[in-house]
């Protein structure tokens, strides 16, 4: 038939199964280099709620402290953490944290940043926002990152809700 109403709809694009369906089920974590600083960026994979903190180096103990102070103390331990294969994430200290808090630590394949695309995209957005805030507001890096994270959490996400409202 040639009638448009009776034709089959086009097939939907192939997408992967979501890693999380509820808040704090799975979080994604990455580092963003910003001048002489590093931003530890953590994003919930279900709600896209994000948290970030400035860390001075890429030492595993520094990363674990940042994760603990910016996420675990506020929201509790997630069930899963997805990171890249960097030595700051893929180490015995991180695995010990996973065992202590019953967190499944997962890593992406080597040389495949698209496997952690949610967090990689957020890194870019936060970098742009921090640049603008520092230029306009003349504030320090920590305050600029806090403003950027707050602004990012105020955007609606893929479900049509704001990450702040879905996470709480």
TrEMBL record:
User: Taxonomically, which superkingdom?
Assistant: Eukaryota
A Pfam family found in this protein is: rve
The Integrase catalytic domain, residue ranges = 9-168
Question: Which GO terms are recorded in the biological process aspect for this UniProt protein?
Answer: DNA integration
InterPro entries on file = Integrase_cat-core, Retrovirus_Pol_polyprotein, RNaseH-like_sf, RNaseH_sf
What protein am I looking at? Integrase catalytic domain-containing protein
Query: Which molecular-function annotation in GO is an example for this chain?
Result: nucleic acid binding
Enumerate the PANTHER family for this protein. PROTEIN CBG26694, PROTEIN NYNRIN-LIKE
């Amino acid at each position: 038939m040639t009638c448009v109403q009776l034709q089959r709809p086009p097939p939907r694009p192939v997408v992967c199964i979501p890693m999380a369906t509820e808040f704090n089920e799975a979080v994604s974590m990455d580092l963003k280099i910003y001048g002489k600083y590093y931003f530890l960026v953590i994003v919930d994979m279900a709600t896209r709620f994000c948290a970030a903190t400035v860390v001075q180096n890429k030492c595993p103990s520094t990363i674990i402290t940042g994760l603990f102070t910016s996420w675990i103390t506020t929201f509790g331990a997630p069930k899963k953490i997805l990171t890249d294969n960097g030595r700051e994430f893929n180490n015995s200290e991180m695995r010990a944290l996973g065992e202590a808090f019953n967190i499944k630590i997962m890593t992406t394949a080597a040389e495949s940043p698209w496997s952690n695309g949610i967090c990689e995209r957020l890194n870019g957005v936060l970098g742009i926002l921090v640049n603008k805030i520092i230029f306009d507001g003349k504030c320090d890096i920590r305050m600029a990152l806090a403003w950027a994270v707050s602004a990012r959490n105020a955007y609606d996400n893929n479900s049509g809700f704001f990450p702040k409202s879905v996470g709480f």
